[in-house]
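pasting for ref
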Amino acid sequence: MISYAPRYIFNFVFFTLIQVLVLNNIQLSGFVNPYLYILFVLTLPFETPGWLLLLLGFSSGMVIDIFSNTPGMHASATVFMCFLRPYVLRLFAPRDEYQPGTIPTMGYYGFAWFLRYAVILVVAHHLFLFFIEVFSLTHFFSTFVRVLSSSALTLILILIAQLFSQGKKQGR
């Protein structure tokens, strides 16, 4: 995992900058907010210890909170996603387990596997985030529509990013 440290530091900074400088300024009719920064957590190695996963999730969420002026909402939603991640990975584990040295990306495990993995974690993150933001069930349906539309746009951006990174890997 240490050999991957520069890559993940770059990913953390890159996705945070994209989120803060570009995506936080995109709101389509107030309902669709893409959150690409969670791709950093989605692509952490399988061997990442639970404590480190939660710490990295908290850190990435807190940085977004600082720049978005949303005290703790992104941090708590990202920690929730990090908490669910090992269970989701176990749910979709191949029969012979994950290969050592691989990471959860489309390049290693294919489009269908990655899509199932990402959909569950992205929707869980968005459900937590938007219902914490509203902190009420009185607007349940409008919040749920917001969760679904934001999740769809976030997933499209994640898949595009995965295709770009997969293309670079094949080019080596």
